Amino acid sequence: MAEQAPVFQIVGYKNSGKTSLLSSLIAYGSRQGDKIAAIKHHGHDEPLKVMHYGTDSYRLHESGAFMTGVDSPRRFQLELSHEDPFPLSQLVDLYQHFSPDLIAVEGFKQEPYPKAVIIKRAEDLNLLELENIQLVVTWDRSLTHALELPVFHLDEWRRSLPEVYRIARGKNHE
User: Fold this and answer.
1) What is this structure's pTM?
2) Beta-sheet strands, E only, within 27-162
């Protein structure tokens, strides 16, 4: 297998801006010509919607197939039913087979991959105890002014994407 793609997480509490920040990071990397893969943790109790109700793939899945894949000329969809959560490392291993340039992850706070932490309010400061923090995104500079990590205010995020993307790719010193 080719060189392994770096994995970079964006973590924070609900409604802190994780999806928006990750979407802009993915868009930036894509504009650079990189292939970005995304994994999102769905930690809510409501179930995910099954793909394409009424389609053949839906019928196959509902017939009892634990894994259903649909391949078309420009897109592949996969649905996999499971009782226990998958470890992020297994999902990353699966994604590596598709040779991305970066695997961008939303959530999975306790995982050891390099990550950005979003601090929206004082109650979020406990996230700074997580492992492998590479940068912090803050909604309030007064909460993060004393940190030795790179800190980006939410308003600076888009302007800072070139630097953030280098950090996400593990290329802090270029």
Assistant:
1) 0.87
2) 36-40, 67-71, 76-80, 102-106, 115-119, 133-138, 151-153
Phi and psi, residue 126, nearest 5°: -65, -20
Which strand (E) or helix (H) includes residue 9? strand 7-11
* Identity of the amino acid at 119: I
- Rounded-to-integer distance, Cα 10 and Cα 70, Å: 29
Count CA atoms within 13 Å of residue 112 on its CB side: 1
The distance of Cα 99 from the centroid of its chain, to the nearest Å, equals 16
Per DSSP, helices labelled H in the chain are: 18-31, 56-62, 88-96, 141-144, 161-168
CATH number of 7-48+84-168: 3.40.50.300
What the block records as the tokens of 110 is 């306790």
pLDDT in tens, 97-130: 999 999 999 999 999 999 999 999 999 999 999 9
Q: Where are the domains of the chain?
A: 7-48+84-168
Closest to 116 in 3D by CA, of 162, 159, 150: 150
pLDDT in tens, 20-50: 999 999 999 999 999 999 998 866 555 555 5
